[in-house]
Each structure stands twice: as structure tokens, then as C-alpha cells.
Amino acid sequence: MSTQVNVRLDEDLLKEVDAITDVLHVSRSEWLRNKIAHAVKEETLNLREAIALEYAKGHISEETLNDLLGADAEDVKFIVKHLQEGKEKIDKKVEQGDL
Q1: CA 9, CA 81: separation in Å to the nearest integer?
Q2: For 62-79, what is each residue's pLDDT tens digit?
Q3: What phi and psi values does residue 4 have, to the nearest 5 degrees?
Q4: Which end of the chain, N or C, is surrounded by fewer C-beta atoms within 10 Å?
């Protein structure tokens, strides 16, 4: 499924895009779609640690985590689960006066 998005571009930028698409023999839309997809993927890779932290804090859902990190989301979920279990054990020991 795809959704149409309208974007306003500066005329000079649009001229550059058109020049590139003419050289590559691709449509403006196709080129822009590919560039946006690449930029989103690269930004996601750059923000992996922040994404994992946001998930651990409960600020993003498991579904969003899966969407952003793909197969690596399982590693994050494993780590968060075991950190929570460890925290619960420590809290229990503190409560009992063992720590």
C-alpha cells in the first residue's frame, strides 16, 4: 500500500532534481521515493541506540520497534526483558534487606 504525499520544493532544488532524473532516465517521483527511502534507512541506522532506549522506556511500541529495527528488534526485546527481570530481583533483595 502506498500513500500520496505532497511536498513543496524550492525552484532551484526542483531544477537540480529534474536534471538528475533526466540524466538517469527515471521519473522525478521514482527518484525522490528512492532518495527518501534511503535517507530514512540511514537515519534509522544512525538512531538505533536511541530507538532501543525509547523502547526500553516504553515510549515506542513493540510494533514500532519491529518496523524500525527489523530482525534486530528481537535482540533489543531480549535485553530489555532481562534487564527488567534483573531489576525486579534486585528490588526484591533490597526489600528483604539482603542488599
Answers
A1: 45
A2: 999 999 999 999 999 999
A3: -80, 135
A4: N
Alpha-carbon distance of 61 to 90, in angstroms, equals: 26
| 68, 44 Cβ separation under 8 angstroms | yes
| Residue 10 CA to its chain's centroid (Å) | 27
Q: Are 9 and 17 in contact (CB under 8 A)?
A: yes
| Contact (Cβ atoms closer than 8 angstroms) between residue 21 and residue 27 | yes
Q: What is the pLDDT of residue 99?
A: 77
Classify 10 as helix, strand or coil.
Answer: coil
CA 1 to chain centre: 19
> Which among 67, 17, 74 is positioned nearest to 44, based on CA atoms?
67
